[in-house]
Each structure stands twice: as structure tokens, then as C-alpha cells.
């Protein structure tokens, strides 16, 4: 079902990863080897971002940060967007981030 | 300061802030009434600096390993928390770096409520912050 993310403008690749970072399924303009790497990268970054958000909450006592829903890292040409255990790589020139995040949240509930 | 005040007019914005790459909070505007305080913004700035640094390291490694370009340097980072999000940008900083300028502006960020969040508007506003300096 994550294939429907690929139908959005600017989405180049999408993959679903397991809790240990292994690729479950992936599609798009990357070969299998790159999709495996993307899954690993997204899993590692998610753990780090989640850990930092947990510490922010713990140190400040402010609710509403954890558990985080996702993250976006934007480079000059491409961005990586992740919600739960689904990550996609998008072309900044063509992509509508609001739409991508909404769709990732929707798909991650399945 | 005008820039930070303009950023808190974004949909759902709670606060805007500037910080160094080391995470040090330089300036901020908090929209009243608020649940945010200075200590939280200070730690949030440090968290964003840490996340930008790790993302930069990963983008660098990814480009070397895959030969795919367009990820480095990292210009923006967004954390979508459970109820709140934070969007930070170093895009103007990168542009000045590329132009060979000596003075690099700080990173700029905005805290927004997820319910009203418009991430694209936040990205655009943060990229345009250089015009308001």
C-alpha cells in the first residue's frame, strides 16, 4: 500500500522499514541496495530524533513533543520525509510537503 | 527582531527563535498566551542544532556512498512531535556561505501547533528571513 505515496508529485522513492532497520518493502527510482540503505538511515535517524525529543520532554516537563510523529530533513535538491516507519525521498522542486506528510500519516496507520 | 515577530504570524505558530550552530539561543519571540518558556526554547534550540548536525553527517555519508547529490548541505530540519512541531532553517546561511560572505547569519526556527501547521508556508517564510534582516 505504500506504493500510493509514489503517486504524489516529487516522490522519488518510498520504503517501509522494520523496528531493527531492515527493509520490509520499497519502491521508486532507487535500486534495491539503495532502498536497503535508505531504510537503515531512516531507522537510525528516527531513533536519534526520538531520543532527543524524549530528553527535551524530560528536561523541560513540556508535554506534546513525544512520541514524535515524524521528521523532515531538507537538502538543497532533495528531502527525506519520515512518519512512523515509512520514509520517502522527494524532489524539492516538485513536492508539496504538506500533502506528503498527510499521506504518510494516513498510510502509516494501515 | 522584526523577522521573528513576522514568523509568529504563521498559522499555528507559538514562537520563533534564532540560534547558533552550537545550539546557543540568540533571540526569540513567544506568542502570548503560551505554554512555552525560555528554558524550553533554549533546550529546543540545542536539540535542533544536534539534529541538524547528525543529519548533515548522514547526508554527507549518503552522498559519498550512493553518488546521489542534492542532500548536502542540509538546509532544513523539521520535527513533527505529537502535538507540536519545530521547523528550523539554515538556508540563508548556506546561501551566504556559497557567496563567500564572512558573516553567516544564525539558524532560524519556528514552533507550530500541529493542528494548524502549514509546513510549506513555514519553509517559505524561513527561507525569506534573510530579506528582513
Overview of this protein structure:
- The complex is a heterodimer of chains A (110) and B (133).
- Chain A is an alpha+beta fold and 110 residues long.
- Chain A has one domain: Beta-Lactamase.
- Chain A is built from two helices and five strands.
- Chain A is globular.
- Chain B is of the alpha+beta class and 133 residues long.
- Chain B has one domain (2-132): 2-Layer Sandwich (Beta-Lactamase).
- A five-stranded antiparallel sheet of chain B has the order 2-1-5-4-3, with helices on both faces.
- In chain B, a hairpin with a 5-residue loop joins strand 1 and strand 2 (25-30).
- The termini of chain B are close together.
- At the A-B interface, helix 1, strand 3, strand 4 and helix 2 of A face helix 2, strand 3 and helix 4 of B.
Write a compact overview of the structure shown.
With 110 residues, chain A is of the alpha+beta class. Chain A has helices at residues 32-60, 97-108; strands at 11-17, 23-28, 70-74, 78-83, 86-91.
Q: Count of helical segments of chain B?
A: 4
What is the helix/strand order of chain B? HEEHEEHEH
Oligomeric state of the chains? heterodimer
For CATH, the homologous superfamily of chain B is named as Dynein light chain 2a, cytoplasmic
